[in-house]
Amino acid sequence: MLRPVRSADGLDDYLQDPFGRYLAGENFIHWYASPEVCGFTIWGRPGESQISRLTQVLDVELAPALPHVSLVDARRIEAPDPSGLSVLVKYMAPRISGFAQTVRRQALVRPEGLAGAVVGGFYSLVSSSYPTRAFADPLEGLGWLGRPEAEARALLAELDELVLQQQGQSPLIGELHRVLRPRLCEELNLADVAREMGMSERTLQRRLRDTGTSFQAEFNMVQVRAAQALLLESDAKLTAVAAEVGCASLQHFSSLFRKHTGESPSAWRAKHKPAP
């Protein structure tokens, strides 16, 4: 049976006694729900320093750790950072045989779109020494790892809440963004979105208002974040990025992007996109 996880008091404390506990970093949470089940959740745009911190924590899964299954939940990654991935490759390369001794099976939950392709391609380079499989749904991933559905749902609900706490985001907004992300190019119906979130249209509007925001404001925020990921991950023209995030025209997209970031899309890309 998986136990609820509680926070560890720093890296040394976690490495010494990880079971039933978690350790949070700037862009990740590593957790041990039992001696046989662990994993980490990672989000946003983790760079070199964040991945370096994660690699320090990953030592907890090496011997003398017991054989275990692992869930890598990367569905919230917005844009993989090449320098961060390089750090992870350098960490994993000399330790692959060590992880093969303790990791019996590992499930990867990939992000959508181009970020998912990048993460999946990298993952295949560092996980070939034990059975792995990629999933779009973490519940399916935990099922493949042999966890009963009720147990898996309870664990995921707890982990999702921890992630939202770390991000400083309310559970309602996090769930709304999750529903909106794959639907930016669709004719969105507020009632359909509310229904998928398990509430009425009126209830969703009221709860958003109580949070100090609105459906349109959060939809625009998701559009801008998706656009930022595309601008970093690809060389797509701005017109293509605009269409991909559901903007009717380049002018509309540029205006929306500038409103949220204070910069034009081209200026933002020039400032933030890593050099080849």
From TrEMBL:
Chain ranges of the HTH araC/xylS-type domain: 174-271
Gene3D superfamilies xref list: Homeodomain-like
Stored PROSITE patterns: HTH_ARAC_FAMILY_2
Pfam families hit by this protein: HTH_18
Signal peptide: none
Entry's Gene Ontology cellular component terms: cytosol
GO molecular function: DNA-binding transcription factor activity; transcription cis-regulatory region binding
Keywords: DNA-binding, Transcription, Transcription regulation
UniProt protein name: Transcriptional regulator, AraC family
